[in-house]
């Protein structure tokens, strides 16, 4: 049977291992004096190895290790069985400048219970923190740039809408004037989408707030008499990603414009209701009005129909159209089991 090495030999071996550690390590006694420091510690913090062992840790270098909070933590660890776990401190070294360190301290349990030994492990995270700060600065700059771009887009859309309306007033053809008014409505709707999606701080959109604000903008821009027509939004607390929210917003815009133009002729009063509900990844969108309903001869699908169908396919949503007598109900349903291929939608008139 091999006899275990004497205690002093075991300690010498442990200290030799610590001295050669690639991670900066220090062994302290109960008085917080350095028993052994690794060569990596002396190298990384530019200390003379011959001047480290036997010195109080707080006297190392030019006194930069005499940080009050670190002193308290080391003393508490030496007098109890607590441990310092990932304490972050700034070391202001005359040679190295300010360094960000992560300190871990563990009270060692070994055969010599009369003498306290602390193992201090040090990680220099200065470069990591610098990279994190650079990333944060870049993200802030990006956010400012995006806000500026969004502001410019909003201004440009308003200018385009004004130019279209000016052109509509100057043309003689009623047909061309109608096309220009339709183009104006679509530019305004895109501006409304851009405005409300721009306020989202992340990649998700709360649908109730989003659809309410969108329909308020649509109402202000395309409804002339608010005593005649109104738009109401109901929704649960659904949250969708930005891409799907844009598609749904465009669909709502097209269907609301279509209803305003064709469901309430000759000053007819009424309401357009938008409802959105979700359960998990499944959701249902409904746009319902109490207008004159679907005409018997709807004609060929127009641009608005093509836009809604294309967006529904992109969303993998099934389209349903029902004549409610009075009114019309258009619904889009997205479930994991539904594919949108082959769904055909006909709005009241080509738009």
Written overview of the protein:
- This protein has 3 domains: 7-125, Beta-Lactamase (2-Layer Sandwich); 148-199; 201-351, Histidine kinase-like ATPase, C-terminal domain (Heat Shock Protein 90), CATH 3.30.565.
- The protein contains 8 helices and 12 strands.
- The protein has helices at residues 7-19, 39-44, 68-79, 126-170, 174-197, 207-222, 242-262, 303-315; strands at 25-29, 34-37, 84-93, 97-107, 117-124, 204-206, 229-235, 239-241, 270-279, 282-289, 318-323, 328-334.
- The strands form 3 sheets. Strands 2-1-5-4-3 form a 5-stranded antiparallel beta sheet, with helices on both faces.
- The longest helix has 45 residues, at 126-170.
- The radius of gyration is 36 Å and the shape is elongated.
- It catalyses: ATP + protein L-histidine = ADP + protein N-phospho-L-histidine.
CATH superfamily of the largest domain: Histidine kinase-like ATPase, C-terminal domain
CATH architecture of the largest domain: 2-Layer Sandwich
Counted by DSSP, the helix tally is 8
**Global geometry:** elongated
What is the N-to-C succession of helices and strands? HEEHHEEEHHEHEEHEEHEE
Radius of gyration equals 36 Å
For the biggest sheet, the summary is: 5 strands, antiparallel
CATH class of the largest domain: Alpha Beta
Residue-averaged pLDDT: 82
**What is the share of helical residues?**
40-55%
Total beta strand runs: 12
